[in-house]
Amino acid sequence: xxxxxxxxxxxxxxxxxxxxxxxxxxxxxxxxxxxxxxxxxxxxxxxxxxxxxxxxxxxxxxxxxxxxxxxxxxxxxxxxxxxxxxxxxxxxxxxxxxxxxxxxxxxxxxxxxxxxxxxxxxxxxxxxxxxxxxxxxxxxxxxxxxxxxxxxxxxxxxxxxxxxxxxxxxxxxxxxxxxxxxxxxxxxxxxxxxxxxxxxxxxxxxxxxxxxxxxxxxxxxxxxxxxxxxxxxxxxxxxxxxxxxxxxxxxxxxxxxxxxxxxxxxxxxxxxxxxxxxxxxxxxxxxxxxxxxxxxxxxxxxxxxxxxxxxxxxxxxxxxxxxxxxxxxxxxxxxxxxxxxxxxxxxxxxxxxxxxxxxxxxx
Length: 363
Hints:
By secondary structure, the protein is α/β, with parallel strands linked by helices. It has two domains: 8-165 and 326-360, Alpha-Beta Complex (Quinone Oxidoreductase, Chain A, domain 1); 172-306, NAD(P)-binding Rossmann-like Domain (Rossmann fold). The chain is 29% helix and 26% strand. The protein has helices at 46-53, 56-59, 89-93, 113-116, 160-163, 166-178, 194-204, 218-227, 240-247, 263-272, 293-299, 314-322, 328-331, 341-350; strands spanning 8-16, 19-26, 35-43, 77-85, 100-103, 106-107, 127-128, 142-145, 151-154, 186-190, 210-214, 231-233, 253-258, 273-281, 303-306, 332-337, 356-360. The strands form four sheets. Strands 3, 4, 5, 8, 9, 16 and 17 form a seven-stranded mixed β-sheet that branches. A six-stranded parallel β-sheet has the order 12-11-10-13-14-15, sandwiched between helices. Strands 1-2 form a two-stranded antiparallel ribbon. Strand 10, helix 7 and strand 11 (210-214) form a beta-alpha-beta unit. The model has no long low-confidence stretch (mean pLDDT 96).
């Protein structure tokens, strides 16, 4: 089942660090169990920026092989209109031609140890849209959801410009789950970018005693309050470690979630958090981070939790957006045509004029 698909499409192609080009590319065709969508909107993520800038995670260093497999079409935050369904895909995913749909950012192998245990987000093969040859991304007019993907129908009442936020919101929800927040906890979320704002909205649902957002941008802190933060603190204007301690009888926060991507926020959190607290590290760092591990072990006996992707969280994210629990009109700040992808990358890199930047390939 399909529309009459064209042979060629416009696509952004990553060929190397800071070598992204708008090219003509073949429109994908679905095989059995596969879905093709016309991309309606795609977000530019901080990890897209770090890949663009050449971070070792994506391009390798002395200890690891680069994750990115160029040439590849970037983009793992997206929503699209179903235009073609391979054999069995309609029944498997409950999708029809014309539906809006998203796909979880990782397409598991379903054969490795992690996938067999249900821990598919840590799949050993680890094909994520926008970085791998099996999983070309959404910075194009059309994209393929391969066999084995985890796909979801998007309710029609969620606007396309909001639905593109399902992926980052799912990641944010998982990070909050990793924080193991208890009723009455003092929770600090460092970073009020798109992911941090999603974490604030998700953490609000956990009913913390005090929910604090940290960011260097006062405008973002105001949006954080609209997402549910009780207060916003700017490290440019005050000693935020001393402030949080003063709010907690000198103990420090119970849970600290790092979502800035800056090494200084890691050290800040280790000093801010109380003994026996839970520290969640979410960010993709551009460079290695050095801290005093004595604080983690002998001094505070902290629980250190990593957070990766948004496993089992897409239905929750879709429901939160359907219910209007986030001020999306203040989060999606720029919508650009695909041809202006470089401007979009530059906006994300600058960070002072945007929160979530999206590309609309249909424009």
